[in-house]
Design a protein that fits this description.
The complex is a heterodimer. Chain A is mainly α. Chain A has helices at 2-47, 54-63, 67-76, 82-94, 98-123, 126-138, 140-145, 152-172, 177-189, 195-208, 217-242, 257-269, 274-282, 285-293, 303-325, 339-352, 355-378, 388-398, 413-419, 448-456, 473-483, 511-518, and strands at 404-408, 426-428, 461-466, 485-493, 496-502. The relative contact order of chain A is 0.09. Chain B is α/β, with parallel strands linked by helices. The chains are: A mainly alpha, B alpha/beta.
């Protein structure tokens, strides 16, 4: 009898444990689903409908070609082709609109949310996983790139998965994790060159903490390095075969200390005006205070935190050093793969703070990210908004066949072309035929007059749309200001301004001038 | 959850002695400290010259502190004596000056149970000369327990005079000294005496552990403050033959003590100076990294402040009266160590200067350096976090925010001691109260509160003058750090503290004592 009672009791206990586990799993699924839905709704209502930006236009332009051509153009760009191939397939299957293309990035972004939860749960615990996932879904930075037709959310997802398998190797000692690790490496090296920084950080972590790895890990990790090398070798060969990289993208500036802190600032508060960003960065001493408060008895930096810290700091440092010493490539979006590590690390610290303090700091962080997300969405002078759509629509409505539309920098032809339906021809300064092989010609002040004469010949008005200053925007504007009569200027977004000039005195009043005269 | 149930508490008697010395981290920390200092001196545009000079002076002090700390904890390994059979005769001195009889009784009873063949227990009763009511009770206690009581009838020299008096009346070659509240473990002598097999050893010091650390916020914080000193710092000093004599829980070679003229009666930190004099005579010292006796921390802020003042004044006397830089017979390492220990109490002045810098900016707009980028943060943050991490590694993660707060929050005590030492104001030795004083301790933190009030006015004034610009926000952040750092000290002064926080009493039996007593 006693045995029976005991057996029933134990079974009831097991059922209860199973029930509570099922309920917790259900709860987690619902919470993660809610986060994904939140990001999806943000995209639907606010982000997906924004104007196409320069980089996105390039992605669309590049992936409109055949697969072989995609390889060619991407090899001449600074990227690797996986995302472009997937986007090509995606557009072929689902359609050609901007929103459809953006959906692909959104899908990767939404998949990153449960992936980060899994990584956080593996590294720390369920609560850290959930809170980090919440930060990811709220993140103004991630939401921005979750709706950009570029490879950054794919990179984020692959790095999260790669880190998951990497941790699985030494935390769970799961032999199967090597397979996942190897596969994510192959995908990763074809997603972005910066994936190698992630691998470098993992190698550094292994050197620091080889004691936490299972035996024979060294040879297996060497094997994985070989896999990465063999995987990328054909592509490198192809790039070398294609010849030098072409200059078809904005010139990057050599970074300073501000860029490093701006990257951290963007990872937390997204893209904000200089004013707001300066206020946020001026609060940097608060990090010292957070460090002081984190001094708690036996509050140790576990190997997981060391790993995430290494990923962030080493990637930043390598990108910065290479940018300063070899060629500028320090761009916050390239470092997007460190964002999950940053969120996990911040969460693990905030969870470690004593009692109410930790709770209030977590609320504070969520509050800051939510508020800055709203500002990022609604601020019309957001520095990363590129309103080529409105600019092109304005030109469409007002330009006449006798006019000419001149764009500078030349590569801005990609987004303008996407929206432009006007009767006047599109030209660029410096003059560039984007269908011809080779880089964009460099600006030459000596030949500016000849080039202006070439593009404006026989036209009545020039619609000069300036954006993405490559160092010569001022020269071009000054030339037009001093040689022609400016009749209009209009700014559509930060650093995207349209100037309209009369090329000859006998030009009849344009619609714009008529409107201005009436006003 | 009580303090004892917190898994983070660990083993209070051992944790602080089990830190390590990661050389790579320490070298990196030193390099960053120097880099930060050089950057501050040479790379920034000087603002107000007076402020700049003071800032650099403060930074020289910080650099000295960091480098001497790293030098001290560079190697904290410990060598046990090779011959453990030495059993020389020991006179045990239990210094008493008005402490409650029960408290003295516990110490005497523990001393009687020492696992050692040849020792005599002497109660050094100064109650009579100090005008304490219970001096007869102490004599009665000695009679009851069958130990010797030496009651002075002629005063002078405070605790040092009391010990010197007993030295004349006893004859064993070794002398063990305990404050009335410091209860020795039964293996105290068997673990300390063997070091005297080396005839050069002048004294052997053991940690001062506060068994009432969990009594209240103050006892816990002051113990946490002590852990850094009695952990890695004392262990490092041991390596450099520069152990600090702390006045209790120690064994001294009688002949060495006599050679330096007994305990120094000219300083209120008689122990510290006596240790210095013994080192100057060529005697070596040993620090045993094991808790072998347990005492009581001060339980109220008033007593704590008096104790801190006494320590600070005594240590500063070493600089102003016994300057170790010029004292004959000391090694360079000993000079550095004594100077490093004594100069710690100058930090009050530096804390004050650092905290008024933002105030000067708020009211006058003057700054020591003109900073237009995030470069300062780039060099300061790694330096600061590496320093915190070095401290945590060296102290086995026992350094806490309250201990930092108490070290910095005691700036007013340190400054008072500094001026008192400079003017050679006469300060009487006061025995630290072993019973909690009652009353309102807010006057002890009036400077801290005044600072917060002035800072609030300053922030308002600066915002009115120049709005929420980067400088105002950055300086406000520094004020916030100061406010947070002062919080533990202010919290300890709050009168309602006792009522609002339940005191957790821990039965001392949780840790088994070698002498088998329980309270």
């Amino acid at each position: 009898m006693a045995y029976l009672a005991n057996s029933i009791y134990r079974r009831a206990g097991r059922i209860q444990t199973q029930a509570s586990r099922t309920s917790e799993r259900m709860q987690t699924t619902l919470i993660l689903g809610g986060m994904m839905l939140f990001s999806g709704l943000l995209s639907f209502f606010f982000f997906a409908g924004q104007s196409l930006r320069l980089d996105e236009a390039q992605s669309l332009w590049q992936t409109s070609r055949s697969v072989l051509d995609i390889f060619t153009v991407v090899s001449q760009d600074v990227h690797v082709p996986l995302y472009h191939l997937v986007l090509h397939l995606w557009r072929t299957l689902l359609g050609d609109s901007v929103i459809t293309a953006r959906l692909l990035s959104l899908a990767f972004y939404m998949a990153s949310i449960p992936a980060l939860y899994a990584l956080g749960k593996l590294a720390y615990n369920r609560n850290v996983g959930l809170f980090s996932a919440m930060l990811l879904s709220l993140s103004p930075f991630m939401n921005w790139y979750g709706n950009e037709i570029r490879m950054y959310t794919l990179l984020t997802l692959i790095v999260i998965l790669n880190q998951y398998f990497f941790l699985k190797i030494w935390k769970a000692r799961a032999p199967g994790a090597w397979w996942g690790y190897g596969i994510t490496i192959i995908f990763g090296v074809y997603t972005h060159y910066f994936f190698f920084l992630n691998l470098a950080a993992q190698a550094a972590f292994y050197l620091f903490r080889s004691d936490v790895f299972p035996r024979k890990s060294f040879s297996k990790l060497l094997g994985m390095a070989l896999v990465a090398t063999i995987a990328i070798a054909p592509w490198i060969g192809f790039v070398l075969y294609q010849g030098q990289l072409q200059n078809q993208e904005p010139v990057l500036m050599t970074p300073t200390s501000i860029n490093i802190f701006n990257a951290f600032s963007q990872f937390i508060i997204g893209f904000q005006t200089d004013n707001l960003n300066t206020i946020f960065l001026s609060l940097w001493p608060i990090t010292v205070l957070l460090g002081f408060i984190a001094l708690r008895r036996n509050q140790r930096l576990g190997p997981e935190s060391v790993f995430f810290l290494t990923t962030i700091l080493m990637s930043m440092a390598l990108a910065f050093i290479v940018s300063v010493t070899i060629t500028p490539l320090f761009v916050s979006r390239y470092l997007i793969f460190t964002v999950p590590s940053l969120y996990l690390l911040m969460t693990s610290f905030l969870v470690g703070y004593a009692g109410n303090l930790g709770r209030w700091l977590r609320y504070g962080l969520i509050g800051i990210m939510a508020i800055t997300l709203v500002i990022e969405i609604f601020n019309p002078v957001n520095p990363v908004k590129e309103n080529y759509a409105q600019a092109a629509q304005f030109i469409n409505a007002n330009v006449s066949p006798q006019d000419v539309v001149v764009l500078s920098s030349p590569f801005t032809v990609y987004p303008v072309d996407y929206y432009y339906r006007g009767a006047a021809p599109l030209e660029t300064l410096p003059v560039w035929d984007r269908y011809a092989y080779g880089a964009i010609p460099a600006f030459d002040a000596g030949s500016l007059e000849a080039q202006v004469n070439q593009v404006t010949a026989d036209h009545q008005q020039v619609w000069l749309l300036l954006s993405y200053d490559q160092g010569y925007e001022k020269d071009i504007k000054e030339y037009f200001d001093t040689h022609y009569q400016r009749v209009l200027d209009k700014t559509f977004s930060d650093n995207l301004t349209l100037y309209v000039y009369k090329l000859r005195y006998d030009t009849p009043l344009s619609q714009v001038e008529k409107k201005l005269t009436l006003e | 959850m009580t303090y004892y149930d917190d898994p983070q508490v660990g083993d209070m008697r051992k944790d602080f002695l089990e830190g390590d010395s990661p050389k790579g981290l320490f070298l990196l920390n030193a390099a960053m400290a120097i880099a930060y200092f050089l950057a501050l001196v040479f790379l920034f545009e000087v603002g107000n010259r007076v402020l700049f000079t003071l800032l650099i002076a403060g930074e020289v002090f910080h650099l000295w502190q960091v480098l001497t700390f790293l030098y001290t904890v560079w190697d904290t390994s410990y060598k046990a004596p090779t011959n453990t059979s030495l059993r020389s005769g020991v006179d045990i001195f239990i210094t008493v000056c008005g402490e409650p009889v029960e408290l003295v009784e516990e110490t005497v009873r523990a001393a009687r149970l020492l696992n050692y063949p040849t020792y005599t227990i002497n109660i050094l009763n100064d109650g009579y000369v100090a005008g304490k009511d219970n001096w007869r009770d102490i004599e009665a206690l000695a009679d009851r327990l069958g130990v010797r009581c030496i009651t002075r009838t002629v005063g002078g020299g405070a605790k040092a005079g009391n010990i010197n008096n007993a030295l004349r009346l006893t004859e064993n070659p070794l002398v063990a000294i305990f404050d009335a509240d410091h209860v020795p473990h039964s293996d105290f002598l068997s673990k300390t005496v063997p070091y005297f097999g080396d005839l050069n050893v002048g004294f052997v010091q053991t940690p001062q552990f506060y068994k009432n650390y969990a009594e209240n916020y103050l006892t816990r914080s002051s113990w946490e403050q002590q852990e850094l000193f009695f952990g890695p710092i004392c262990k490092g000093k041991n390596r450099l033959n520069a152990a600090t004599m702390c006045g209790t829980n120690m064994v001294i070679r009688r002949s060495a003590l006599v050679e330096v003229g007994g305990m120094c009666t000219e300083s209120i930190a008689e122990d510290f100076v006596t240790g210095l004099l013994m080192h100057s005579k060529g005697y070596t010292s040993v620090y045993v990294p094991e808790v072998l006796a347990e005492g009581l921390a001060t339980e109220d802020l008033l007593t704590y402040s008096k104790q801190q003042f006494r320590w600070a004044r005594g240590a500063l006397d070493v600089i102003f009266r016994y300057n170790p830089l010029f004292m004959r017979g000391l090694t360079m390492a000993q000079r550095i160590q004594y100077l490093a220990s004594a100069s710690f109490y100058i930090s009050g002045l530096v804390v004050v200067f650092d905290m008024i810098l933002p105030l000067i900016f708020f009211f006058t707009g003057m700054v020591p350096v003109e900073i237009s980028s995030m470069f300062l943060a780039l060099v300061f943050l790694p330096y600061m976090f590496l320093t915190l991490f070095s401290i945590q590694r060296a102290s086995n993660y026992t350094f806490t925010f309250p201990s930092l707060g108490f070290s910095m929050g005691g700036f007013n005590i340190h400054i008072k001691a500094l001026f008192s030492a400079i003017t050679r104001e006469r300060s009487a030795f006061q025995v630290t109260e072993k019973q909690k004083a009652r009353g309102n301790f807010l006057p002890l933190v009036r400077w801290h509160i005044a600072y917060l009030v002035v800072a609030a006015i300053g922030i308002t004034y600066a915002v009115i003058r120049q709005g929420f610009d980067a400088s105002v926000i950055n300086n406000t952040a520094w004020v916030l750090i100061n406010a947070a750092v002062f919080y533990p000290f202010i919290q300890a002064a709050l009168p309602e503290r006792e009522a609002s926080t339940p005191v957790v009493h821990k039965p001392i039996t949780k840790h088994k004592h070698a002498y088998g007593l329980s309270r």
